[in-house]
Design goal:
The complex is a heterotrimer of chains A (274), B (222) and C (60). The longest helix of chain A has 36 residues. By secondary structure, chain A is mainly α. In chain A, helix 2 runs antiparallel to helix 3, helix 3 packs antiparallel against helix 4 and helix 3 packs antiparallel against helix 6. Chain A has one domain. Chain A contains eight helices and no strands. Chain B has one domain. Chain B is 86% helix and 0% strand. The longest helix of chain B is centred in the first third of the chain and has 32 residues. The mean pLDDT of chain B is 88. By secondary structure, chain C is an all-alpha fold. Helix content of chain C is 82%, strand content 0%. The chains are: A mainly alpha (274), B mainly alpha (222), C mainly alpha (60). Chains A and C meet through helix 1, helix 3 and helix 6 of A and helix 1 and helix 2 of C.
Amino acid sequence: MSALVPPVDHGLFGEGARSDAAAASRQRRAQLALRVVGVTGLLGVVLTVWLGLWVTPPDAYMGNLVRLLYIHPSMAWDAFLAYGVSFLASACYLWPRTRDLRFDRLAGASAEAGVVFTAITLVTGSLWGRPTWGTWWVWDPLLTTTALLFVLYLGYLALRKVPGDPEVRAKRTAVGALVAFIDVPIVYFSVTWWKSLHQAPTISPGKSDVHGLMAWTMLLSFVAFSLVYVWFVAHRYRLAGLQAREEAEGLALALAERRAEGAASAVEENEVWT
Amino acid sequence: MWHDAVVVAGKDLRIEWRSRVGLNQVVPFALVVLLLFGLALGPDAGRLRAAAAGLFWVTVLLACLLAVQRSVAVETADAGRDGLRLSGLDAGGIFVGKAAALALQLLVLEVVLAVVAALLYATPLSGIGLLAATCVLATAGLAAVGTFYGAVSAGTRVRETLLPLLFFPVVAPVVLAATKAFSAALSHHSGGGLGWLGLLAIFSVAYVAIGTIAFGPLLEDG
Amino acid sequence: MDMTDFAYVQAGYVVALGGLALYGASLIARERAARRRVPVPVPVRTDERRGEHEGGAAGS
């Protein structure tokens, strides 16, 4: 059914194709809101970097390395937030009453942002671990779970890239996302237990005194990077809507393009065609 | 549902019995992997013995991937999927049946591999009860997740490359827990393996349940 | 001030901000390209099509 009727798309951010004036003004307002989010997030990030690198003092125990705490935990938080949103959107898609391809696009958009944040979390964590623990990697439960999450969601994104009917694909990926998400607590539990049997030293960053300006900087980093996350998801979601339309009307668009090309060159070959 | 499961499992096992792809290709492949691990870790018997449990389960995982692909291929060839859909069999039953057939084949493979690994890696088998229980529970989990993701990736053009990427991270806890349980059994501390058995049981029950519920929608779409 | 530690910190900031900037830039670039390929918003007779679409989705 959906092959014949291209999915009509109004979009959460009003990018859809409604021709009336109300929709146009809504679209402008959504665009403006998104701009505000983007600019605020960018300012927040700049402020975080300024405070984090220049204004805040080095920590008594961690020295300058405490500065990594202004980016690393907020990245990890954004990653988990992104996967949570993706999970909820997938569940909404699978629930028959809220089934809507917009949820599928939101799930995909959020998962992609999540993968970006997870990658940054892993690298910044490793950069913190090297001078602190003397090694780039430890088999800490949190680290191992994060690494597995990264791979799990790379698989999820790969599954999303598989071409096919949008609704079939949406259902397939939503089910895949649920199954992957359920794995997370099991992985975390098993790795925790595995480590505890080895009597490894427990490692917890951020045990030192974080107070005053440092705490505020950290709080600011959470807000700023969360805004960046929202901006990412909104843009990725819009892009997904465009891509869906392109997919639905792809053949017609390609035909129009070829015809336009043909019209230019076919003037002298007119006899051949007629 | 159970009747349907038996029908489907019987069908898959009959196909395997007649084609003997598992026996002629998957089992030899697993043996090659065991040999390669031996080469990679050197002739030092102590090191091999220490790693034996982990090597065994990684080998099982690799062989399991092939078995899953075979189990999917049986359905995709000649539009067998449509046949299954038209058969009126319960989707949950189809899932359980396919997973059970896969699990049975894997169990046979594991017995063969265990004997060969014990010889190659100079690891006398001890704690047979724990070993057997681990095999059964871990295989149930592997088969459930494998059948599920086999169906997810079936019908896509990239299924050979997509399946391992989806499958392996999810079963990472199975490899971890099964390896731990095996190590406990082999080092005569069977009591230490019981907790891991519990974890394997939770994993298997969870994924068999999810697969049974979620298989219907997957099958509908083709 | 331990300069080697500070090098790790700088590397961390470069990776984090650089990664986010790259992803953001890729989003904008991809969106522009998509807009070029899907130029005109299609005028849609919203109501009947939407109804049909929803009915189909709910029935499956």
